[in-house]
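Milestone M4 deliverable, item 7.
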Amino acid sequence: METLRTRLFGGKHSAASETIRLRKRKSTLYSKERCNTELGTGLLGPNTYLIMFSVTLRMVNCFLVQTSFVPDEYWQSLEVAHNMVFKYGYLTWEWKERLRGYTYPLFFASFYKLLQIFKKDTVQLLIWVPRLVQSLLAALADVKLYSMMKRQENAEIATWVYFSQLCSWFTWYCSTRTITNSMEAVLTSFTLYYYPFQGTKTGSSLKYLALTAFAVVVRPTAVILWLPLLFYHFWQELKKLDLLLYKCLPVGCLTLGISLMIDRIFYGEWVMVQWNFLRFNVIQNMGSFYGSHSWHWYFTQGFPVIMGTHFPFFIHGCLVVPKKYRVLLIAVIWTLVVYSFLSHKEFRFIYPLMPLCMVFCGYSLANLKAWKMPAISFLLFSNVCLVLYTGLIHQRGTLDVMQHIQLLCKDTLPEKDRPSLLFLMPCHSTPFYSHVHCPIKMHFLECPPDLTGNNSYVDEADMFFEEPLKWLNIRFSGQASLPTHLVFYNVMEQKIEPFLKTRNYVKTAIFFHTHLPDGRIGSHIHLYERKMMDDS
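Output delivered:
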């Protein structure tokens, strides 16, 4: 009887236990499925429409940015890539001094090589394919930022962060450009997605460490932004020694090793460009050769300008954001403080902070009640105005003149009859061979810094602008050495008018550049062509 009772009760107990286990398993599987649905599975997952929308918007973004920003978007990426693939293209002094790594230009060179292999290397594709690729990366970064906030919080917060990111005028202005800062901003969004905000329970240490290491390879100063976040991760990590030995050390060594190998192939010798870059720009502060600003510039001008009308929402977001995101605010302030110690300052240097700042702007919008719709309308209207002006009007002349120069390229002409150009403008004002794709002779006023410590050093550009007419008469004392075309800003026209008349130069084209001329930069760009005596 006891045995029978035990079997009966035991059977009931076992059946009940099995039922409970099945329910728990079903609940666990449902939770995992729900989690996977929220985070996305596969390449696109449930975020398919979001990705398609983001990609479409960034493509439109790309084609609506037809202006120039800084020389590095051409001279440190596309021009180098063009030289790598087509064996002609100007390498600036930074490459001669081993301050730049080939990893970033290699990314674009791979697409150039594909175009060359399939004989599709037209100048228009060489210009637009890299920018379209950058646009695709920017779109995926937008989605990653949304997915990160949806995982950490909820869909509502994620939507407002995503909205803030998309309507930011400076993100629109920079995200599709081929500068290292744009790639660094993309990597920032990807890295935040895997960052363990709450310790080892969330995020992926290996992935975020690998992306951080790659960002440092692309632009060594990226280490400044990520130092506070790395320390915060290390502080809350339970197995600190394992983190250092099995994650940080392998990832760092592998990434550095790949970078060293790439630079070894293209430089022909072993060189650590990351150290050279930091030594030159941070330790020696030689970047001040290209201009310096007051220590407070980033706080009083730089950061407020790139934030634009998002700035009050950023301030409000700092007050309402959850405690775990304060590490992002610390990273923003830390980066601004460190960059403030460097004399040479630029807006683009702090562009990688934008994804972090959009988290605070999104929280601000989410916490607004009665003022939410007016705030959205204000952000949209104010940023669209800035986007259209800076993307389509401001500083477009340097690209328009290169489109005109493309028409001068005729491979059928003998080399001696091909046109030659001289750019009498501040150095690196226009793109170069990457926007012409034709081996014609082109020269510009050079401006490398003095690396010898000579106090009396004056670069070629400064010598010209000090006495332009005298410089031209000395430089071109013989008729045979005269270039067929001269390119310069309108502010220089009257100063060199005697030289233009005596050498038979005639104005053939004018290109609008900016409504805000400053110093050596004029409102228009003039193209002069030399006419032979029998043509006059």
